[in-house]
Amino acid sequence: MSIRPYPNQNKAVDLILDYLYGFDGNPVLEAPTGAGKSVIQAELTRRILNTWPDKVVLCLTHVQELIQQNFDAMLAVGAPMEPQIYSAGLKQKNVGQLTMASIQSIYRNLDKLPYPDIIIVDEAHMIPPKGEGMYRTLLQTFPDARMVGLTATPYRLKGGLLTNGDMFDHIIEAKLTNMTMAELIHEGKLSPLVSKVTHANLDLSDLVKHSSSDYTEKSLSEMVEKNLEQTLAAVNDMAAHMADRNKVLVFATNVAHANFIANELGDGARVVDGRTASKDRSEILAQYKAGDFKYLVNVGCFTTGFDQKDIDGLVFMRPTASSGLYVQMCGRGMRVHARKTDCLVLDYVGNIETHGPVTHVEPPPPPREGSGDRANSPSVKECPECMSLLYLAATVCDECGYQFPKKYKVQSRTSGADIMAKVDIREHKVTGYKALIHRKKDAPDMIKITWKSGVLPICDQYLCINHKGYARQKAVEWFIRWTGRLPTGDIFIDLETIKTMPEPPVLLKVDHGGKYPEIRSWI
Questions:
Q1: Structure pTM?
Q2: What are φ and ψ of residue 497, in 5° steps?
């Protein structure tokens, strides 16, 4: 079966190649679970090898199921040569001009690899920010190779964004390819999540966090031991809520916890954890895929790289302070399948209250330089209108006047929070616009465009042409798109150019899910 990448996937590949052409650094692409990272990787590889037939490409990941999935996509897209697989779990140890490898298998056998020109890392958030881990051993062996990362979560709990380090230099955000969760749900490429109030919640009052990471293993184990009665009640509640669901994935805290849950669920449940033998794991997954049992209870195994499209139930019995882990867990239920219309999420450990709707999760801020303590780091956020960086507590942007919507806060431990914010993307016919200079004290002047449909405004857009950094970069991109020219930097001249733009958009796709509308794409 052949696959043709859809337009958003092609746009993602275009942006990756544009960065590789124009800059010396290493980009990482943000693409939500279900956006088709396997197809994006395959199309990127196909184009590279068709353009430069002598280049060597190495594709890395940490999960054997992903290797097979990526291999199949590579063949379906039409790579100019059949990839070689190097994975102990798949019982293949071959290398070539195009190699798809498990990092666990290949990093001890680097002398067998031809020197790669391009290294593509799927689930790039697994690369540690520092130290001598498997990925770093490999990457330090091939320092001249260009690297491309793919991930749904371009940040770590420790260290914030993946660009906070020496591996990646640039994040290609999902909004640049129109592949945000909200857009993919709107287009039917992702399944929506729904949540219900749960009636048996675990006591998390004694959980202890590392200074800059997730909860300690000791406190998690103690939580399990003191919550056996609550866990039993949660299992009964879960069974009632999930009665009409087909496949349910349960996230347990540790092995003892998983076994307790599975025993209470009976013959309809199986357990997979890090100690499960590869043969047994493959057999259990095959049975799960065939529908031989309903509940797959796992401990840290299926947070990334698990593509079971017909999962229509997720159960959180494992609390996490990691926003990245939370997003990855949610992503396991967002694949589209003919047998489901949505995926039900039951949260017995307050993850939704901790992190908010999965469509609005913010990456953690980086630690302050010289300190590993996240608590001492400056908390910042980006203004969605002008891209200025502001303190996290700011309610109004000092640069453009944007007012932030109220944050999702934990009111109480009720586990009644919504897993997903409202998805409301609409298309508007543009009948006119108004452009003027917007002034703010102690900030450069900017151009404010109000797009209109009839007599009603659609949304406001700010072009921060005389700002610095990312805000200016985005303003220049928009200016060129609307006018076909580069801005001069003279705000009055640039305003007149905007007022006479030769090809204004006739159709805007706008996200109204937040407090303020935001342009997603245009025609």
A1: 0.72
A2: -65, -45
Q: Which positions ≥6 away from 247 have C-beta within 8 Å?
A: 288, 291, 294, 296, 308, 310, 311, 312, 313
Task: For residue 172, give the nearest of 480, 470, 512 by alpha carbon.
Answer: 470
Specify which residues 156 forms β-bridges with: 160
Exposed (0-12), middle (13-18) or buried (19+): which is 17, by Cβ within 10 Å?
middle
pLDDT in tens, 480-516: 878 888 899 999 999 999 999 887 888 888 887 766 7
266-289 pLDDT per residue, tens? 999 999 998 888 889 889 999 999
How far apart, in whole angstroms, are the C-alpha atoms of residue 412 and residue 353?
8
User: What confidence tier does 412 reach under pLDDT thresholds 50, 70, 90?
Assistant: very low
How far apart (Å, rounded) are the C-alpha atoms in residues 15 and 519?
Answer: 19
348-396 pLDDT, tens digit each? 998 988 888 888 777 665 554 444 433 333 334 566 665 555 555 556 6
Residue 375 has what pLDDT?
A: 35
Least confident of 14-18, 111-115, 300-304: 300-304
Question: If you ran DSSP here, which 8-state letter would residue 116 be given?
Answer: P
pLDDT for 200 equals 77
The pLDDT tens digits of the residues spanning 440-470 come to 888 899 999 999 998 889 989 899 999 876 6
Angle at 165 between CA 163 and CA 167, to 5 degrees: 75
Contacts of 243 (CB under 8 A, 6+ apart): none
The two most distant CA atoms of the chain are separated, in Å, by 73
229-259 burial string, b = 16+ CB within 10 Å, else e?
Answer: eebebbbebbbebbeebebbbbbbbbbebbb
Amino acid (1-letter code) at residue 186: H
Tokens of 137: 């051993």
Please check whether residue 413 is in contact with residue 201, taking contact to mean a CB–CB distance below 8 angstroms.
Answer: yes
Residues in the chain: 523
SS (H, E, C) 405-429: CCCCCCCCCCCCCCCCCCCCEEEEE
CA angle 404, 409, 414 (to 5 degrees): 150
Long-range contacts of 430-437 (CB under 8 A, 24+ apart): 430/458, 430/504, 430/505, 430/506, 430/507, 430/508, 433/504, 435/495, 435/498, 435/499, 436/495, 437/491, 437/492, 437/495
Q: Alpha-carbon dihedral of residues 237, 239, 243, 245, nearest 10 degrees?
A: 110
SS3 of 375, please? helix
Q: Are 368 and 336 in contact (CB under 8 A)?
A: no
Phi and psi at residue 58, in whole multiples of 5°? -120, 125
Give the closest residue to 380 by CA, choosing from 359, 369, 366.
Answer: 366
**Could you tell me which residues are beta bridge partners of residue 380?**
391
